[in-house]
Amino acid sequence: MNLKLNNKFVPAIIIGALAGGALSLIDKNTRQSMKNLPNDVQKVQSDLQVRNDPNQGFIGKIQDEVLFWKETIEDIRRENPELERQVMNAKDTLMEKRNQKRLK
Q: What's the superkingdom here (predicted)?
């Protein structure tokens, strides 16, 4: 059996993946998210460990779940201020319509 790489498909895929990865790092947001990736992984791991703790009671699990979602929403708010404005505008519109229906 010949161990030479006569097939050029696999090396081409590897070279393409490396080139694509290098090109994606041109974007500042991508570089920043790659820098934060180890911290994010550690945060998720610690969240999973806390959630799977058999000694934790039902109330503690609910508190942890609420805290997790609160942190997630805060992250979204920090990273997407325009989305937050749109959600608040939608909420205000819905509240106005609800109040108008009550007045009728």
A: Bacteria
